[in-house]
Amino acid sequence: DIVMTQSPDSLAVSLGERATINCNSSQSVLSRSNNKHCVAWYQQRPGQPPNLIIYWASTRESGVPDRFSGAGSGTDFTLTISSLQTEDVAVYYCQQHYAFPLTFGGGTKVEI
Amino acid sequence: EVQLVESGGDLVQPGGSLRLSCVVSGLTFNNYAMNWVRQAPGKGLEWVSFISGSGINKYYADSVTGRFTISRDNSKNTLYLQMDSLRADDTAVYYCAKGYSSAGVSWFDPWGQGTLVTVSS
């Protein structure tokens, strides 16, 4: 199984400041079909289901603000919120969509 | 707008059974694979099971293999999860979530609101 390891477990960021979340996969998740990394990111606000933010490691889902960006290569990936807003307070999860069983990171709680 | 609505969650005793349903609207249901993902209280996300758009291909997490069965009725736009031999550690909110295409691994988008399963005596 591919293990997804997120860090940190939580972080506090001031309004308007940058937040960076890390995610490491235990093996390569590079798709041979399109040369893209198979990593997705989700935002889960309290009491809500998760919401897709990023897929293919860096493709922003339609409607997601451009302050959210994903990057990475090899086995190390990041989600960056360039200027934190109050509505961004949530838990963020990475997920590999490379192979079954599909696996998630443990989550990172972002607070102000 | 695509909508997913789960139902069937309940309080059940250890060793019992439960069937969850997820009704999907706003898309051509058999064009998309579907998944179940669960979240134990205060914990992270755990993928449970996958079924292809045709219903032919199915995958399960090791933790539920042999106890849970995923199925779908494309004529009713409905996804199911039959849960047998339930254990306390199956207690969670169960989400249904749509895959990107009709088959294969993918991200999950969108998700339903979830249904709570509690396994306790």
What features would you describe in this structure?
The complex is a heterodimer of chains A (112) and B (121). By secondary structure, chain A is mainly beta. Chain A contains no helices and 11 strands. Chain B has no helices and 10 strands. Chain B is globular and about 40 Å long.
Helical content band of chain B: under 10%
- Please give the alpha-carbon distance between the first and last residues of chain A: 34 Å
How many individual helices of chain B?
0
CA radius of gyration of chain B is 13 Å
Taken in chain order, the helices and strands of chain B follow as EEEEEEEEEE
Mean pLDDT of chain B comes to 97
- Can you give the helix content of chain A as a percent range? under 10%
Q: Strands of the biggest beta sheet of chain B: in what spatial order?
A: 2-10-9-4-5-6
Counted by DSSP, the helix tally of chain A is 0
In a nutshell, what does this entry contain?
The complex is a heterodimer of chains A (112) and B (121). Chain A is mainly β and 112 residues long. Chain A has no helices and 11 strands.
